[in-house]
Structures are given as C-alpha cells and as structure tokens.
From TrEMBL:
<dbReference type="InterPro" id="IPR001387">
    <property type="entry name" value="Cro/C1-type_HTH"/>
</dbReference>
<dbReference type="GO" id="GO:0003677">
    <property type="term" value="F:DNA binding"/>
</dbReference>
<protein>
    <submittedName>
        <fullName>XRE family transcriptional regulator</fullName>
    </submittedName>
</protein>
<keyword id="KW-0238">DNA-binding</keyword>
<dbReference type="InterPro" id="IPR010982">
    <property type="entry name" value="Lambda_DNA-bd_dom_sf"/>
</dbReference>
<feature type="domain" description="HTH cro/C1-type">
    <location>
        <begin position="8"/>
        <end position="62"/>
    </location>
</feature>
<dbReference type="Pfam" id="PF01381">
    <property type="entry name" value="HTH_3"/>
</dbReference>
C-alpha cells in the first residue's frame, strides 16, 4: 500500500486546508479526500499527478515517502536535512505551529513535543519555535511580513534579557498568543501589540521570552 493517503492528510494540514477545500482544488469531494486519508481508497494516478504537480513534490515521494514538513514547504530547495551543518550552523529540529494550529495555539504551550518539526540551520543552542504566518495573527502595525513567511522565535535566557528592548517577540501562553514589541523599564518588561494590548512581566518573574530570530520568506 502506498503512502499517498497519509501524505494527502499531512499536505492538507500543513497547508491549513479542510478536506472540502483540498478536494475543491482537484475537483474532488470531501468524501473522496476522507476515503484517501483513511486508506479506504487509493486516488487514481492522474489525481496523484495533479497533487504532486500542484504542490511541487516528486510523484515518487508522494507515493512512497512519509513527507516531512520541510519537503511540503519546499525547504529542501534550500537546506538538505541529511547534511549535518550548513555554513557552520547545525540543522535543528524546530517545533512548527502551522496555520491550522494557530487557531488553538494556546493549547500547545505545554505540548510543543506534539507539534510537527521543521529543520533549519541555527547557530544558537537555545530553544526555538517556528510559526507559519497567517493574516489572522495579531501583529504590531510596523511588523513587516509576507503571507508565505515562517517566523522563528528564540527563547531568551535571563542573562540576555537586555537584548529584548525594541525587539519583536512572541507572546505564547495559555491565555495569549500574539506578536508584539518588547519594551524594558527598570523592573519590568512589556510585550506591546498596540495601544490597547500588552503583557507585562516582572524582571524577577520566570517566564518564556520568545524573541524574533528571523523570518524565512519564499520569493
């Protein structure tokens, strides 16, 4: 049995598509997609070819491999996961909050190990999290980002808190999920989204400070 069904499900989830939306792209019904994903039916070869061509994935990979997030997002055009280092940087496995997961992002605060991972060259040994950007994600007005971006956030330790001032960061807690800009006062750190929304932290408070490390934008 091929891996097409599993790969269709993974493609759909990474791209943030419902079964109906995925089916509409290829003139299929939601029932067709459900039957493929549940291994109750195999798509015809012409459907497999359409899916492979649409997402830019080799047909053989779609049929035989368990596709990785890197392959689905075409990151393998840039970085080869089998290579131990790129330009002196290690290929780290970073938990990825996909567009579909952003709607319930707060539920993953204590379950990062349940997220899919994306491999990316990183020099720092700190923890990272990647976020697939979507328009519904609250961001400051001066945060420039394209629709196809993957945002990488680095967890900053207490010795490096001084680097947060005026840096963009991620508020990721059980109650809040947004991108803001850090401001530092004498005894307090604030992550500000806008004039009406911010989160304050005491300097002595042990928390997770996620600082924007970089943006990957396909061009």
């Amino acid at each position: 049995m091929s891996n097409v069904g599993n790969n269709i499900k993974k493609l759909r989830k990474v791209k943030g598509l419902s079964q109906q939306a995925f089916g509409d792209v290829f003139n299929l019904t939601r029932g067709n997609i459900s039957s493929y994903e549940e291994m109750r039916a195999e798509p015809k070869i012409e459907i497999v070819l359409k899916i492979a061509n649409y997402f830019g994935i080799p047909v053989q990979h779609l049929i035989e491999k368990n596709l990785s997030v890197n392959e689905i997002l075409n990151f393998n055009d840039y970085f080869q996961p089998d290579t131990p280092a790129v330009g002196g940087k290690r290929l780290a496995q970073v938990p990825l909050l996909e567009r579909e997961a952003l709607l319930d992002a707060c539920t993953y605060v204590s379950k990062l190990n349940e997220l899919p991972v994306i491999e990316f060259p990183l020099q720092s040994r700190n923890r990272f999290i990647a976020v697939e950007y979507m328009d519904a994600l609250p961001v400051p007005v001066d945060f420039a980002v394209s629709a196809q971006s993957i945002l990488f956030f680095e967890e900053i330790d207490i010795e490096s808190l001084h680097t947060l001032n005026n840096a963009f960061g991620l508020c990721f807690s059980a109650e809040e999920f947004f991108i803001g800009k850090y401001t530092l006062a004498e005894q307090e750190i604030s992550l500000v989204l806008n004039a009406w929304k911010k989160v304050d932290f005491e300097l002595a408070e042990k928390g997770n400070f996620w600082k924007l490390y970089g943006k990957f934008e396909r061009i």
